[in-house]
Specification:
CATH class: Alpha Beta
Distance between the termini: 9 Å
Radius of gyration: 11 Å
Number of helices: 2
Order of helices and strands: EHEEHE
Length: about 70
């Protein structure tokens, strides 16, 4: 059965556009699947366990996060 997951377009991702360099998507992910080691660093996504809630895509100021159907 197809499911939805979040994917990041790394060429659009710019954490300096997020408040204090902290990824907005990482802050809102209810399952904590978006990880950012330090401020201003590109976050890492874990789409294999993503449920596709779309909160991360909703808050990303660069629209770098997309929800796709597998």
């Amino acid at each position: 059965m197809p499911g939805k997951v979040a994917l990041v377009e790394f060429e659009k991702c710019d954490p300096s556009k997020c408040e204090k360099g902290v990824c907005a998507a990482a802050q809102v992910c209810p399952r904590k699947l978006v990880k950012q080691e330090t401020p201003y660093e590109i976050p890492m996504f874990h789409p294999t366990i993503c449920k596709g809630c779309s909160e991360c895509a909703r808050v990303c100021p660069q629209k770098a996060v997309k929800i796709v159907t597998l």
